[in-house]
Design goal:
alpha/beta; Alpha/beta knot; 7 strands
């Protein structure tokens, strides 16, 4: 209909739309997403090889999120929770980077509350933190249900770290690892422990 009426259509990133001064004269903005998010209950019920739910906290880069989704799918975890604010939604770039990996994904408006609720359901909260007190190799057995928290480009809020068991991957020569790389190392370690027990 817009084309029939000679109304210009511009496809853009929502963050650019909000920041641009020229957009004061825009009368209509439409954000479209074909991706269907799951409910947290669906993720909890999902049968998987690893009984792990991943919380990707404020991951803004769609390629990072896509790589995280692909890694999570490779290790067959229950599903992923992403934060609604300060986080990239599941868009075409995420799907393309993930190579169309099939993983249940839901969103939360309050990551801290979600962690507390899952703890009450006996999920053991592990937080990947470069300054964590526990080295990954020190984990020699795993709980039946794990909530794994992975931070985005700016890390994880201290309030979340305070209610989790903070683990680190020992590295040299670099300050940190890419989020999906750190996730892959952690999931491989946890999977190895599971199959040894």
């Amino acid at each position: 209909m817009a084309k029939q009426k000679n109304i210009p259509i511009v496809v853009t990133n929502i963050s650019k739309l909000v920041k641009t001064e020229k957009n004061k004269n825009i009368h209509i903005a439409l954000q479209i997403s074909d991706f269907r998010y799951s409910d947290i209950e669906d993720i909890e019920k999902n049968k998987s090889d690893l009984n792990i739910i991943l919380l990707a906290y404020k991951v803004k880069d769609p390629r990072n999120l896509g790589a995280i989704v692909r890694t999570a799918s490779a290790f067959d975890i229950k599903g992923i929770i992403i934060t609604s604010k300060d986080s990239c939604p599941v868009n075409d770039t995420v799907i393309h980077t993930s190579r169309n990996a099939k993983v249940l994904i839901t969103r939360t408006n309050n990551a801290l509350k979600t962690i507390q609720e899952l703890k009450q359901k006996d999920y053991y909260p592990l937080c990947l933190d470069s300054k964590g007190k526990i080295e990954l190799s020190e984990i020699t057995k795993i709980n039946d249900k794990i909530l794994l928290i992975l931070g985005g480009e700016r890390g994880i809020d201290d309030k979340i770290k305070q209610i989790c068991h903070n683990i680190r991957i020992p590295i040299k020569n670099v300050e940190s690892l890419n989020t999906s790389v750190a996730l892959g190392i952690t999931l491989y370690h946890l999977k190895t422990i599971k199959h040894k027990s």
